[in-house]
Predict the structure.
Amino acid sequence: MAQLEAEGGDTGHRGLSFGLSTGTTGEPGVFITSERDRARWLGSFLARVLPPALLLRGRAAILLCHDSQLYHQTGGRTTHISLSLGAEGCARALEEARPGIVVGPPSALRRIVEAGGFRRRFPVGLVVTGGEPLWPDDAALLADAFAAPVRQVYQAAEGFFAAACSYGRLHFNTDLVRVERSPIEGAPDRFVPIITDLVRDGPQRMVRYRTDDVAMEASGPCPCGSALPSVAGIEGRLADYPIDPQDRLLLPQDINAVLSPALAGSWFRVTQTDRGILALELPHAVPGPQAARAMRLLYELSGMAVTRRTLPSLPLTAKFRRTLRLSPPGTAPLLSRLQPPVMLSTTSRNAA
Ligand SMILES: [Zn+2]
């Protein structure tokens, strides 16, 4: 039915919308929303993410794989641009749409602005990223390319979980969803959010849904003064964390902190191909000595053998993950690291 709706057909279910999300493993998720769900999603999104000036006169371009009725409740002020157009195609479509607000996954937006055909001849007021972790180097690159602030949101087909404030912290929408944290053994300042949607009333309820995402704790209250509890960001999917031979988790943030400066902001991906073996995947253009230095740093960080591979060219519709784990031991040892959940409420230590 989601496919039928995407093709403009009638599903025969009045008031319900069937949507497809970008599946993290390539298999899209399906979600069902009632009219009220959609209205509430849009209202919360606008209130949390957009400054008043943009709210009143902004036009938005949504760059995602799949269109959804969720994005078309704005009286024609929203344009969906399909990522299946490719980077050049999206760059042209953006120029035609001339949006004041650009929404999309950070890696796809970065590839669009790096495309040869990208010329930003229109003023952008805000860039909103979602669907993937927003790394500081990508945030800086996008802010520069669009000459606009970059904010990330954390949401999934399952709902709208969190939005970043102007300080870059991600505040959970604990007035709309209940968030429990499942601590991770071996990563004391990380947790996996478990979400219960308190306001959704359509046929698809969400009760204690364990995401596979890893949130990074922030230190101290957020200077923005919001009463909503905040985290520093989402680091990635737990299933993608490399594990060293001593069974320690290798944190993507640590990998990024080492590799991103060493590679001068170039694209990279660290893939665990087997026990004790990492592949550093780089574009051809990265010079040998720079790659060798990055490989040495990664070896020093992880204690694992590091090989160089060519970064495959992925379609724009694919999620890009900076770490990936292909090898056994599968997810069971990762799941066993998850501790019983505890509540994260608005009255927690970092509430204002
Ligand atoms: Zn804040």
